[in-house]
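Q: What residues go here?
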C-alpha cells in the first residue's frame, strides 16, 4: 500500500555538532542595514564548503525528538519530507548539506539576526531557501519566536493544503493551530524546548487509526489532554549575583561557547531562578572577564 506524503517543518536548534567559523556567527556581522548584513552572510555561506547533512548538524534534546517525530510519522503510515526552518540557512531539506553556523530569531541572544520582527522577516526573505513548491499535507512544529517571523511566508509558500501546526503564534491560521501547552509536560516528559515536538509525536500516535488530519484526530487529542493536563508550579531558588556568576563560569568550563540562552535554560532546569535581564548582564560580565 502506498504511503501518504507528509511535509514536516521544524525549526533549527541552537546546539550544533561542530563549532562555527567566526564568519558564520551572526554576532560578528558588522552593524548596518539588514540587506547588507544578509548579503555578507550569504557570501560567507557560499564560500564555505558544506560538510554535514542538516539531520546530523543539529544536536540536543529537541533534535532527538525531531528524529523520533520522523520515525513516528513513518511508523503510522506516512512518507515524511522533513524541512528545517533555519535563521542561518532558510528553508532547507534535512538532507541538504551545510556548515555549522550561529544565527537565531530568538531575542536576547548574541546571534540574533534582527532587533524586531520586521527586521527578522527581512532577513528571512534574503536567505537562500532551497525548499519550494506546494504541499498537499503539512505538519509544522514552530516555536513562537520563529513562527512570528516565518509563519506568514510559509502559508504563502505552501498554499491551502491540509495543515496542523504545533506551537506557533497568532500568525498561524487559528483552525490549524494546536498551541503549546505546558500543562502537558508531565505527561509528555522532557523540557519546555522540546514540548511542541513531543505534542506532534503524541498527536500522530493518538490518530494512528483515523489519520492525523481526520476530524476524529482532534477529538482524540482533546480527550487525551483533558485527562493529562497538570498545572505546573514553579518553586525555583533565587540566586544572588555572585551565585549566578559562579554558575555561568562553571557551565562555560564544562561547555565552552555555550550561548546565553542555553545557559539560562540550564540554570532554570536546575531549579534555580534569575531574571532574564539580570542574567544577561551577568553572563556578559563572565564573557568579557
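A:
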Amino acid at each position: 500500500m502506498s504511503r501518504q506524503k507528509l511535509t514536516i517543518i521544524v525549526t533549527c536548534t541552537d546546539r550544533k555538532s561542530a563549532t562555527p567559523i567566526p564568519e558564520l556567527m551572526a554576532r560578528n556581522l558588522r552593524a548596518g542595514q539588514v540587506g547588507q548584513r544578509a548579503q555578507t552572510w550569504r557570501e560567507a555561506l557560499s564560500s564555505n564548503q558544506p560538510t554535514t547533512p542538516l539531520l546530523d548538524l543539529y544536536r540536543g534534546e529537541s533534535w532527538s525528538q525531531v528524529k523520533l517525530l520522523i520515525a513516528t510519522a513513518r511508523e503510522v503510515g506516512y512518507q515524511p519530507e522533513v524541512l528545517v526552518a533555519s535563521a542561518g540557512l532558510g528553508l532547507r531539506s534535512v538532507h541538504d548539506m551545510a556548515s555549522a553556523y550561529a544565527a537565531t530569531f530568538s531575542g536576547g541572544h548574541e546571534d540574533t539576526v534582527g532587533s524586531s520582527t520586521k527586521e527578522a522577516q527581512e532577513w528571512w526573505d534574503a536567505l537562500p531557501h532551497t525548499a519550494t513548491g506546494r504541499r498537499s499535507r503539512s505538519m509544522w512544529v514552530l516555536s513562537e519566536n520563529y513562527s512570528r517571523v516565518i509563519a506568514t511566508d510559509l502559508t504563502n509558500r505552501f498554499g491551502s493544503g491540509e495543515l496542523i501546526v504545533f506551537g506557533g503564534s497568532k500568525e498561524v491560521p487559528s483552525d490549524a493551530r494546536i498551541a503549546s501547552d505546558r500543562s502537558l509536560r508531565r505527561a509528555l516528559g522532557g523540557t519546555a524546548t522540546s514540548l511542541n515536538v513531543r505534542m506532534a509525536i503524541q498527536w500522530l500516535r493518538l490518530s494512528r487509526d483515523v489519520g492525523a488530519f481526520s476530524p476524529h484526530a482532534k477529538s482524540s487529542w482533546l480527550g487525551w489532554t483533558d485527562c493529562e493536563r497538570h498545572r505546573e508550579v514553579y518553586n525555583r531558588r533565587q540566586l544572588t549575583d555572585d551565585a549566578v556568576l559562579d554558575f555561568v563560569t562553571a557551565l562555560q568550563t564544562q561547555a565552552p561557547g555555550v550561548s546565553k540562552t542555553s545557559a539560562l535554560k540550564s540554570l532554570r532546569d536546575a531549579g534555580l531562578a534569575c531574571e532574564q535581564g539580570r542574567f544577561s548582564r551577568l553572563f556578559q560580565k563572565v564573557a568579557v572577564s
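A: Context that may help when evaluating the design: The chain has a mean pLDDT of 92. The chain has eleven helices and ten strands.
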